[in-house]
């Protein structure tokens, strides 16, 4: 286990902040928010791939669209069907 992870656990600090890991929030089947992303790698109306320090996240569904994009977070809307973590 890395030193930063041990410090985060010992001090009960948010791992996503200290380790720059993605924080993912899903609202039903219609919206997903990804914080701490590194950018969009692929984009279509049925699949969006997002780069993160922990690897690639693939969001699948239909009628997907980008609701919000900032340096810190992105929000995807549409009809979500799956979220996969690719290495």
Please, could you describe this protein's structure?
The chain has 87 residues and is mostly beta strands. The protein has a single domain, classed as Immunoglobulin-like (Sandwich). It is built from two helices and six strands. It has helices at residues 3-10, 15-18; strands at 23-27, 31-35, 37-43, 47-52, 55-69, 73-86. A six-stranded antiparallel β-sheet has the order 1-2-6-5-4-3, with no helix packed on it. A hairpin with a 2-residue loop joins β4 and β5 (55-69). The longest helix is centred in the first third of the chain and has 8 residues, at 3-10. The mean pLDDT is 88.
Write the layout of secondary structure elements.
Elements: H1 3-10, H2 15-18, E1 23-27, E2 31-35, E3 37-43, E4 47-52, E5 55-69, E6 73-86
Antiparallel strand pairs: 1-2, 2-6, 3-4, 4-5, 5-6
């Amino acid at each position: 286990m890395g030193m930063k992870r041990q410090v985060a656990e010992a001090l009960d600090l948010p791992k996503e902040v200290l380790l720059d890991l993605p924080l993912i929030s899903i609202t039903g089947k219609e919206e997903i928010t990804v914080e701490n992303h590194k950018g969009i790698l692929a984009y279509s109306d049925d699949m969006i791939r997002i780069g993160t320090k922990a690897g690639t996240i693939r969001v699948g569904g239909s009628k997907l669209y980008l609701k919000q994009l900032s340096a810190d977070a992105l929000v995807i809307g549409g009809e979500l069907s799956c979220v996969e973590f690719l290495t």
